[in-house]
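Check the record.
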Amino acid sequence: MQSCSRRSLLARGAVLALTAAGAGALAGAAAADVPPDSDLAYARLLVAADLLAADFYGRALAAKVFGAPEQKTLRHAAFNEQEHYAAVAGVLTAAGQTPATAADIDFTYPAKAFAARGSVAKLGADLEQLQLGAYLGAADAVQTEPLRGIVSRIAANEAQHLAVFTGLHDDRPLGVSLPLPLAIDAASNALAAYTS
C-alpha cells in the first residue's frame, strides 16, 4: 500500500478532475464568463434603480427634514447606493457594455415629495421597496456569477434601507417575513414612474 499525503492526494484529484472534464468543459467555462442577455438586461435595470436611489438620497439629504442621526444614516445609505451602482455597472463594463449614468436619466417625484419628514420617509419606503423587489427578482432570475452573488448581497442591504424608512414612516422597521421579488417587467414598470 502506497502512502499518500493530503497535498499529493489533492493534486492527484485536481489532475483527474481536469482530465475527466476535458477540453469541451474548459471551453464552456470560458463562454460562461459572458452573461446572457437576460442577465445583462437585469443589470441595466438595476443600474437605473441605483441611479434613482442615489438621486433620491441626494435630494433627501438636501431637504434637511431629518435630525442629525437620520441624516447620518441617509449619508451612509447614499454611499451604499454608490457602491451598488459600481458593482452592477462593473458587470456591464466587463461584458463590453456602457452603463447608464445619472446624466442619461431624468428623475421625477411626486409634488412636495421632499417638503416634510413624512413625505420623504414615505417616498424612501416606496423606493426602497422597489429596490428590494428588483434585487430579489434578479437574485431569482440571473444565471451567472458574479452577478448572482452581487445582487443577492445588495438585496440584503436594500432590506436594511427599507427597514430604516418603514421605521421613519410608520414606526414599523420590520417588514414581511418573505419579501416579494419583482420580475423584470414589474420592476421596470415601477421604475418608469420615477424616470424618463
